[in-house]
Design brief:
The structure is a homodimer.
Chain A: E1 2-5, E2 10-15, E3 20-25, E4 32-38, H1 48-55, E5 65-67, E6 73-80, H2 94-99, H3 109-118, E7 132-134, E8 137-140, E9 147-150, E10 158-164, E11 168-173, E12 188-193
Antiparallel strand pairs in A: 1-12, 2-11, 3-10, 3-12, 4-7, 4-11, 5-6, 6-10, 8-9
Chain lengths: 196, 196
């Protein structure tokens, strides 16, 4: 069964060890900020810094592992039709819209959506880390370090599949930031399958 | 007065709003992992994801600001003789040495040194974020995302100065990882000056 995350919203759910989470971009060019916590001890969380260090690569794809801050595997990327995601930026927030977009009445963003979705799991605002930003296309200039947020490479229906390497709480959004999704705020779909 | 962090060790101290922290590489080619917390509420911490997003640049230098997870300015880089630092990797740890270096009796690394130094300030192991890795030289291939840890560009005596934008607890190390410092484990010096 496929579930839908409506535009500019978020959700959270348990994912058991071995289960497969498939993130689908139903209309194309949309981003989903994905965070993960150890379901037994939510002080253990997905860590971009550990994962990038162990992969020796900023851009992770099929075959790569998303590690926790305690260096334990949390999610393995087992299939990836898009091949480009970001793992350097925090979820967009009220402050993102204020600072980057100059909005005077800023949207609460993916940060606000994750806060709402994760609160019932006992996870507070300060515990939301740098997300694995599924389908987010951030270009990097290796000389200057300049980054630019470009439209995602995902075409309608394309998907990426993760396998849980421990029991997890997952937070996910349909991204609220215009730069991330070419200023068309679309939904995100996902599916959970039993271990094969 | 200049203080010295001996090779493969760490320290922590309070830095008052307006004070200047100068990090000095006395012998050249050494790295200092620097983390910062709001001294009043240590759940607020330095955030690479927010800082990189607001700068639109991976490599931060003089004129840039290191933001917190709550999007408040924590440190401003006010002078920088080296100009190349890393803000994507977590402090090296027992697991780093096991996974990347294949050590069978791994050193506790900067993570262990920061844990020991920050414990008296009530900051636990899981709260240590991605560090601002002063003088760390990580090359990035913009096409593939491949990263490589290269010898720092810092020459003996070169320094970088930060101004505290709020009252802070600072954790700092003389890095324990061979890749970071060209396999010569050297000290790091630092100096605290009153607001000019």
């Amino acid at each position: 069964m496929t579930s839908r995350i409506p535009p500019r919203s978020g959700t959270a759910f348990k994912l058991q060890k071995g289960q497969l989470l498939t993130v689908i971009d139903p209309e194309g060019e949309q981003v989903s900020d994905l965070v993960a916590f150890n379901a037994i001890d939510t002080a253990e969380y997905i860590s971009s810094g550990r994962s990038i260090d162990y992969a020796s690569r900023l851009f992770l794809t099929a075959g790569d592992i998303l590690y926790s801050n305690r260096s334990n595997p949390m999610l393995a990327i087992v299939a990836d039709e898009v091949g480009r995601h970001d793992f350097t930026l925090t979820p967009c927030s009220r402050d993102t819209f204020r600072i980057i977009y100059g909005d005077t009445e800023p949207h609460h963003g993916c940060q606000g959506n994750l806060e709402r979705a994760l609160a019932p799991h006992g996870i507070g605002p300060d515990e939301i880390p740098i997300a694995f930003n599924v389908f987010m296309h951030v270009s990097v200039d290796g000389d200057t370090g300049e980054i630019a947020v470009l439209p995602p490479k995902s075409k309608p229906g394309q998907k990426t599949t993760f396998r849980a390497e421990m029991d997890l709480v997952i937070g996910m959004t349909a991204c609220s930031a215009g730069q991330s999704n070419n200023f068309r705020y679309k939904p995100i779909d996902y599916r959970i399958d039993a271990a094969p």
